[in-house]
Amino acid sequence: QVQLVESGGGLVQAGGSLTLSCAASGSIFSINTMGWYRQGPGKQRDVVAVISSGGSTNYAESVKGRFTISRDNAKNTVYLQMNSLTPEDTAVYYCYAWTPVAYWGQGTQVTVSS
Questions:
Q1: Are the CB atoms for 12 and 18 separated by under 8 Å?
Q2: d(Cα 28, Cα 82) in Å, to the nearest integer?
Q3: Distance in angstroms (rounded) separating the CA atoms of residues 67 and 64
Q4: pLDDT score, position 39
Q5: Which residues, given as ranges, of the chain have pLDDT below 50?
Q6: Positive or negative CA dihedral for 91, 97, 102, 107?
């Protein structure tokens, strides 16, 4: 079992920045890929960014150049640095870990005002 706890969400003005954190606990030795998904109002949950245990990253086209995912294996934590935020980034952001069983955090709200 893996437990994921997100933090760092909040309200920010367009053009601003936020950093999300996700701390993993439990069977952390089994974690391979970690990442972030988001679900906007009335939308499906979509991938934002993922990072492998080796540090390889992939991003959704809509966030490339603005968001950066990173991982501190010593702290069992994954981060999402979000810059140049727009109202379209408003969503609940979910942390994800794959062992290959999928685990999800409880979600953290990010609201970007225009």
A1: yes
A2: 25
A3: 6
A4: 98
A5: none
A6: negative
